[in-house]
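Q: What structure does this chain adopt?
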Amino acid sequence: MNKETMPFGKSVAVNDHDLLLAIREGLRPMQTIADETRQGLPYFGNDLAGVDPIGNSHDSHLSLSHVPGRWLDALLNAESLPGMAVDNQVIARLARWAYASVEAAGMDLPAQLDLETNEIRKVSQLHNLREVLHAFTALVQYRADDRARERARSVIRAVERYYVRPGFRFDDDLLLRETGGKITGADPFPLTFGRAIGPLVKFYRVTQDPSALDLAVKLKDYCLSHVLAPDDDYVLENLGKHTHSVTSMLSSLALLGETLGDRTLLERVRRFLEKGISRCALDFGWCLVGYLRTDLMGEINNTADIMETCLVLARAGYPGYDARAERILRGHLLPAQLLDTHFVARHLDPTDTNRYRLHERVRGAFGFPSPYGHEDSPGSRIMFNWDIVGGAVSGLCAAYHGALTRSGSEIALNLLLDSEYPELAVAFSYPERRLRLQ
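A:
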């Protein structure tokens, strides 16, 4: 046993029924984990066991825009729910990083951070289009932020300006001539544009900005023609091995289909969920972190996407998808939250900023679970990367709103999970098969 490993018990305490508890616990690390040596920049990576040393880490591609975007989306979506507390100073700090990622490099695209100099580079990682659009949409929706509205529009204009049809490949020469910038990480389609459809749709829903919906439809049309296979199977050459990009593209298409009232698109989503996604995921929501992996490391971002897709299909009238969403929540998403940290090494030196009291501050995180727990096999690496708590909490907020729906004077309870609403509180116990409404 190395010095960074604590004994991992045969079991850990989990929550498998309480939505608001999970959301509340998830808000904790997003408001307490930041690198004060870098002006409060969120960390990206987090190792808790199986490696030496454990701790938080940065990523030049993903720390600057990726994590702030996820966290702003999650925190602001959760803020209005019962019993939630969100620190406005945290929101302001995250917004500052999101704005800087798009404005500082002069490309109107999410830029990278040089971790040696702390300077923002004129290099855009297109994987982060989704996250900056999430950030700006949430700031517009919950803070009426005009700066965020314009930044989102500038990102949309930049995508329209620099990509080359057919193929949605950027015109690198034009971008270099006009801005001095360059692109990295431009393939495959789900890794960049496909995953960005969802926040474009959300921005349209909030603002009614036609440019967002127009771009989302263009991306959808290309996806249906060139990316998704006619037989709805998982074609690695088209989709790539980064399964979260594929699942987020799928949930994006579902949201677009719902917005357009497009039953044909929703049926295509349903078929790919049942066939293509089943190549890397199980019915209760566990999904491999990478398509070619041979171990059982999953990713909760993927699980949340699949669950949200089920909620959309349920609202569209497809039978059985509310039940599947609940099965995903009870059977995997909720239990995968880190609530029991007995196995995390104790670091009590406040100058050790990457690891100080991490065993306490990491509580509430989500990461890369196996189908049966945090640890794939004895001694394996256990990670809770910081973007994932944002994706999980956003998904849990979608579940909260989807669990109870209203139509006139009627209320429908769609998910049997413990929660609270203005009209009633819900508690359901499976062992006793007892539903309590107050």
